[in-house]
Predict the structure.
Amino acid sequence: MLDARQMLSTDPTRRQGWEKAVKRTLNNRVKGDATEEYVLLQGGQLVGASLSVFVKRSLLRRIKNVEGGVKKVSSLT
């Protein structure tokens, strides 16, 4: 079981490594077309769980008001 300190300390290094690898893989599939390049829209992490949202660069202008949030809680059992 994780204590409160472990839950609140999130090292972004691993998440950033995964985001780079996923972005590279996505963009390898669309080589040569800069408008179809994927970019990271939003990313977040809570302990060992990570969520990253990628979008095609050509669609960025259609996306508005992106919000995200993380709620860290601990079990009281």
Summary: The helical segments are 4-8, 12-29.
